[in-house]
Specification:
The chain is an alpha/beta fold. It is elongated and about 50 Å long. Helix 1 crosses helix 2. The chain contains 5 helices and 3 strands; from the N terminus they run αβαβααβα.
Amino acid sequence: MEQAEALADIVDAKLARAVGVSNFSTEEMLEVYDALQRRGMHLATNQVEYSLLRQLPDSSGLHKACQERGIRILAYSPIAMGRLTGKYGPDKPPLGRRGFGNVSNGCFNNAPAPTQALRDLR
């Protein structure tokens, strides 16, 4: 895979100490992982969206594949772009283009329980 080779070249040139990827599917990530392994290198991280409302890394098998290979998941948007804070709700959707991928604002109907549970932890 050309991307992995280029990333490995950067590490070999001492311009970086580790290789990480962002938003790679399991299949894409494994291609990079295998290519790096052939060069004696390790894939350090895959940065993905991950929260109580967005658990694709679990349902897709990405999390398991990472665990099996020692690849760390670096989660972004752990509070679901503010949805788990109570800032937004069915009656207060986010303004403008602050979307949630292909998940509709109907996801707010399920957010009050986790939001209240988080408040109770304080």
